[in-house]
C-alpha cells in the first residue's frame, strides 16, 4: 500500500521540479543570449511478481507478466539551443551570432568560458570585455583615437582612426561543441566545457557551420512564453492528479484501520 | 467461519494493487514515451457447493451439487496499453517521435532495449543518445552519428546537410513487450516495423488517460469501502456466533 503513496510523491516532486525550471525560463524571458531549459522524466524500476514467459504448465507459459511500477524521476534538464530572436540596438560592440557558435571569455581564474551574450564594452585600457569586465578571447584592444569600430561578419575587428585610416585590430574567433547541451552553466550567461559536451572546436565566423557575426544586434532569449504557460498548466494539473492519488491512498488506509472497531 | 473475512480482505488487497498501478500511471502522466498499464483480476479458487438432501432409499442424507463458487480474487496480470500518445512539437533536431507502431532500439549497459521515448540528445562523440546514455541504433544495429544539420525523414532515413543518406533509424515491432524502467521495454522477436512515420522535432508524450485513471481510482476506493464493510459485517456475524449462539448462559 505504501507503493502508491511513494509513487504519487515522486510524481508531485517531479512536477515541482518542472515548475522550478519553467519559473527560471520565465524569469529569463528577457535575458540576452539565454537558452531555455527543459525538464525530462523517466519512469522508475518495476517490481516483477511474475515474469512473462514463466512456464505455467508443461506446454504453456504466461503471455504477460505481473509487475508494479514505482513512479517517476527527473532524468535530465536539457538546455535547448534553438536560436533566439535578434534585436537591433545599433551599438558598435553589440554582437550577435547568426547561427552556431560561442564567444570565448576568460574568467578571473584563467579558465575559458563560453557565451552567446554579445553585449561587449570597452574597459579602461581599451580592451573588449563583457558587461562584467571579463576579457574576450582572443584579446582585442581598441586604440584611444578610434572614431568608429567595425566588426565584419567573419569576425575581423577594425577601427577608423581620427585621421581617416582604417586599422585592423584582430579577428574574433568562435567555438562550437558536438553536444552544446552538455555545457555547464555557471551563471552570468556563461558556460564551461565538460566531458559530456566534448572539446571546443575553434573556427572563423561564417565558415564551416559557424554563424556569422552581426554587429549592432543582440540575440534575445529563446524562451517561448506561450509554450512555458502551457507547460505550467500541465505541471499544475499533473501535480493535482498525484495529490488526489495520495488523498485516495490515505482514505483507503483509514478505511482499512476501521475494519476492526 | 473466516472464509468470508479472507475473501472480502482479498478484495481490499486487489484494490490496493489497482491503486498502485494508478499511482504509477499518474506519476508518469508527463513522462515522454510512457505507456499506461491495465490490470486484470481473476478468481483464484473454485469449489463445488452442495446441499444436503434426505435419501430415503439408503436412509441417510446425500450431498447434491448446486454449482460452482469462485472465490479468492488475485491480481492476474498487468498489461501495457501501447496505444499512441499525443505528440508535442519541440523543434529540437534530435527529438524523434514515432507515429504508428514500433519502438526505437537502444543499446544500454551492454544490452538491447526498446523505447518510444524520443527525447534524444547528442553526446560528446556525436552519437545520438538518450538522457541516461543509451545509444540509438540504426537498422543494422550500429550507433548513429548525428549533427545539427542532419534531417530524419518520415521513413527514418537520416540525411546529412547535402541530402545524402547516411543511415536509417531502426524501428521494430516486439512480441510481449515488458517494462524495464527508464521508459525502456524488453521484448522478444524484434521485427522491422512497416507501419510507422518518424517525426523529427517532435516528442511522443505519455499516453496516460488521466480522466480514466481518476475514475478507476474512485471505483477502487468505493469498492475498497464496500469490501471493508463486508469484512466488518462478517466479523460481527462471527461475533454473534461466538458470543450469543454458543453462549453457555
UniProtKB/TrEMBL annotation, chain B:
A Pfam match: LlgE_F_G_D1
Sequence ranges assigned to domain Flagellar basal-body/hook protein C-terminal in this UniProt record: 199-243
A GO BP annotation: bacterial-type flagellum-dependent swarming motility
UniProt keyword list: Bacterial flagellum
Superkingdom of the source species: Bacteria
Main location as per UniProt: other
Subcellular location field: Bacterial flagellum basal body
Domain Flagellar hook protein FlgE/F/G-like D1: 97-158
Coiled-coil annotated residue ranges, if any: none
Cellular component per GO, a single term: bacterial-type flagellum basal body, rod
Family note: Belongs to the flagella basal body rod proteins family.
Identification of the protein by name: Uncharacterized protein
Organism per entry: Thermotoga petrophila
